């Protein structure tokens, strides 16, 4: 363990998919953890991540500088994991990705917090047609302006039990006769395991040499959108077809699908997500990443079967005839 730990660390957005893993890893490292979230009741499940009293959930709306200041009181380090995949009410991209990021970075600078790690995303681009990508880039700039020594991590698509990526398409495969190859399915991803992302964030907190650097986090393999859908179908034992869907048609469907957010239901697709799919989501050539943080990336094939079996007919007891035959021969 480095000299920076243990101490008190504030994790903004710590009750989410990535945040839950980060809190568990920090607890194992001996940190005292303050989980700052809008809904503390959603963070209570994290109490079992460490020892009694090691983790405390506090209410914090990161768009309110006063609440951010209170959440940072006495903290030695902070992590900002706040982000949304679609806009809903006051939870706009601008508010969550820019305003909240600025408040946290300014708060860290004012409170003399030693280390801030800010999670952005590969694809953050001020010139993108996607509001998600534009606001992620603006958030990075706001963080750098307020706290130049902050560490920025940019993961590609994150997978793991509870993700909103493979699970989404597996759920679609269990209901729809075919899956859409949006834009022809040629968009490239570099899926990264949530455990590796969490390990990278913890290393970025504890490693003094990480100060002021940006790390792009990708898995060991680059996959096209079509490759991803085929993996989902293979692991769920489904034979659904794949139908090419032009971007303009997907955008129209996304416009209708995102209306579900008005009633609190996560949309399966939005217009902005279609815009994101027009650009590859892979680690840039020459960028620092998991290797520089001493982390060996985990392949998607090693993890996906451990949770996609839930979408098979018959669940974990579903086997192909060839699988059964090989078992008998063995």
UniProtKB/TrEMBL annotation:
<dbReference type="InterPro" id="IPR051207">
    <property type="entry name" value="ComplexI_NDUFA9_subunit"/>
</dbReference>
<protein>
    <submittedName>
        <fullName>NADH dehydrogenase</fullName>
        <ecNumber>1.6.99.3</ecNumber>
    </submittedName>
</protein>
<keyword id="KW-0560">Oxidoreductase</keyword>
<dbReference type="InterPro" id="IPR036291">
    <property type="entry name" value="NAD(P)-bd_dom_sf"/>
</dbReference>
<dbReference type="InterPro" id="IPR001509">
    <property type="entry name" value="Epimerase_deHydtase"/>
</dbReference>
<dbReference type="GO" id="GO:0044877">
    <property type="term" value="F:protein-containing complex binding"/>
</dbReference>
<feature type="domain" description="NAD-dependent epimerase/dehydratase">
    <location>
        <begin position="9"/>
        <end position="218"/>
    </location>
</feature>
<dbReference type="Pfam" id="PF01370">
    <property type="entry name" value="Epimerase"/>
</dbReference>
<dbReference type="GO" id="GO:0016491">
    <property type="term" value="F:oxidoreductase activity"/>
</dbReference>
